[in-house]
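P.,

For your records, the input lines for the assembly:
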Amino acid sequence: MRYRVKVEVSLKPGHSDPEGETTARLLRELGYSVENVSVSKVYTLLLNAASHDEAANKTEEMCRRLLANPTKDNYTICVEEAP
Amino acid sequence: MKRHEIRVCILRVGGTNCDMETKYAFEDLGVQADILHVNHVVKHRSLMEYNALVLPGGFSYGDYVRAGAIWAKWMLAKMGRELMSFVDEGRPVLGICNGFQVLVEAGLLPAFDGIAPYPEAVLAPNNPPGFHCRWVYIRHENNGKCIFTAKIPKGQVLRIPVAHAEGRFLFPKETETRCLKRLIENDQLVFRYCTKEGVEAGGKYPYNPNGSLYDIAGICSPEGTVLGLMPHPERAFYWWQLPDWTRQSFMPQYGDGKLLFESIINHLEKKF
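Structure tokens returned:
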């Protein structure tokens, strides 16, 4: 089966987000009442796996091995069947 | 081991820089230094022919995913066993800037309990944000474990430039205090950012250029044979690389960066 997996890697709470803070500051300069901006990264994977669970487990492993650094990153995984 | 027999491997991949400066620095001190693409080293299994390894600065693989992450995992996958043997035998491994990021992502630093399967720290985006290229002062903090700074008395202030966007050294928030304590107790803390007079930067910009925890600029492994630092010693090797050489009536022949290279070579001459 082919699965489309979305991985969102975001900063753990409590970590400063200089990119988000800079973006928020500029958006406020542009006149928007933006309270906060947090920046995250989204990876969309097209992946072959025997089942939904296997796709999720493989992606979990990929996050641990490469996509996220446990010191500062949280990640969420969303698996759906691909056409 | 005689000085002229020492061979240093300077690895490069797409996006590395300052490999030539590093080679010049070693050669100036009478040591053989080869710049090799990592594919060449993998293909010829030639890492163990060298006595020291340098991962230079730059933006390997475009700094995609995270700075240093791709090069780190690629190296572990393709030449992990050789790299581990190299480290286990106590052969020096120096990571400068991007090289430091690679060593952290590869679990080779801080490596509190040996080489870690996942990163135990991170070099996060600078705070204040952006790419900072400037001369900074760093204070030597090591009590003698780090072989790369054996020629530098504790407390000595060095002037060396940084050039990076991701140099904010952090431990996980939940274990930050414990990890920092362990780093200091293990004598793995090597350099901290400071003022010209050697007073700790206290996180203040521009002395601390990236917001690094505890003003950390460089750390070593528990054995002291793997060092990662954000400043570029190879860019402070000759007097003519220093920012004020036209304004000084007397300039030393070399910059502070030379002390690190000399320390590595002295260690190799004595130990091997």
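Two observations worth noting. Helices of chain A lie at 18-29, 52-67. Chain A has one domain: 2-81.

Regards
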